[in-house]
Design brief:
This protein has 2 helices and 6 strands, in the order ααββββββ. With about 90 residues, the chain is α+β, with helices and mostly antiparallel strands.
């Protein structure tokens, strides 16, 4: 039943050209250069180390690898991280 509701929301978002990140509550990732990243609609931090961060989302966990990470801002649904990013991927 939950899957049908999600599929209906996806169809509505596409039909009315609405932003999927808002309608479906999926993550929106904004990268500025290779030293700042903002993730909206996150569900919390799973792992935080100086060279690896794992952020939980509704879809999958996001793995970020790099150096000298620092949290610039964290709120209920938004997190901004600085550092030197080498890779950003969804957990398989």
């Amino acid at each position: 039943m939950q899957r049908k509701i999600e599929k209906s929301r996806e169809i509505i978002a596409e039909t009315f050209d609405l932003p999927k990140d808002i309608v479906l509550n999926v993550p929106k990732i904004t990268i500025i250069g290779n030293d700042e990243i903002t993730i909206e609609n996150h569900k919390g931090i799973i792992l935080f180390e100086r060279n690896v961060i794992k952020v939980n989302t509704k879809v999958k966990a996001i793995n970020i690898e790099g150096e000298n990470f620092e949290i610039l801002y964290i709120g209920d649904s938004t997190i901004t991280i600085s550092g030197k990013f080498k890779s950003i991927s969804y957990e398989v």
